[in-house]
Specification:
402 residues; alpha+beta; six-stranded antiparallel beta sheet; 10 helices; flat
Length: 402
Amino acid sequence: MSLHLVNALKRSWPCGLPAATLAGLLCACSHPDGDGQPRNDNNSDPVVRAIQGVKDQFAPSSRLAICNIGAERRGRELVLTGEVDRVEAKVEAVRAVERTGASVSDHIKVLPDERLGDQVWGIGCLSVASGREQPEHKAEMGTQVLMGEVVRVWKPSASASFRWYLTQSGDGYLSWLQQGTFVRCTREQADLWNSGPLLIVTAFEDRILERPDAEAQPVSDVVLCDLVRKTGEEGDWYKVELPDERAGFLPRKAAQDYGAWKQARRPSEENLERTARTFIGRPYLWGGNSPKGFDCSGFTKTVFFLNGIDLMRDSSQQARQGVAVPLDEDLSQLRKGDLLFFGRRARRGGPERVTHVGIYLGDKLFIQSSQRVRISSLDPKSPIREEYRIRSLLAARRVLKP
């Protein structure tokens, strides 16, 4: 179980909770994230098994769903606590524990947090916002949210200042965003943003300026795939507005109408390779999915998005998309554009675990973000071979339709 969940449990339970009870709850909340993580079930306790069954049903991956349920014995009563993102999970948890014969008191909270009011949506307002695994800057970055991206807002951090919020991006990924990196809004406001005259940034990087003048003061930087609202045109410039209502001018050459851009996507083997190669040399960044830095799955996600195909955020999730492609010694069944997955093979009864992804280019070559975006080979005789990747190749998936 992740450290942020441990800390959340410590904060949410009464001060007098015995250590043994907390230890049991941690076991109950520990489950596979759908990515090969080992289980830690206490199969001897029917209540623990019941809670685990609910978690497996409603949140097989803690990166994509919220189902943090614990139990505390108070006399003859079993108090269920924690939080879920669906009322169905709460109802099923109570029923599952009651089926064990326990007398249940339900204290499970259904998110979004009532303190948010009706502003339970948000829109990224920085070129790239860091989504953290915990509500603090020193925490691991799990993903990035780009300007104009709409997110679900689930709850504020425990701090009275509410400087961080647990959010969920369009691909389902949960992360903590700092106040000021996005603007909270209602569902209606989010829908209005999405339906507005949006521009997508097609330049790797550029700037929005106060005036339609290259020497003007900047309002914000922008990067590839950011979205801004178009409010007008002036010569070689678009007049634009950001989600936080900052306004300025963006060079016309740096962006396109978002609707027209989406209609123009033509996913093909050649286009995928062409897009992927434009990023060669870009640095590796754990949790990155922007031109400022990519992790392995952030790279593949961006390449496919730019060709009109949506991938999930993590390599272990991408490994379930598309259709399987058989692997033989000569890789004869692979086609350009197939996703290659690497990791640890099943051993000692443990599951296989996907830890890396790249894009096949043909002739045993593939492109990946590892150290930087680069081309490597699965041919043992190639000067750019990667022996570790050759040994750890687990599977291939075809997302492109024939």
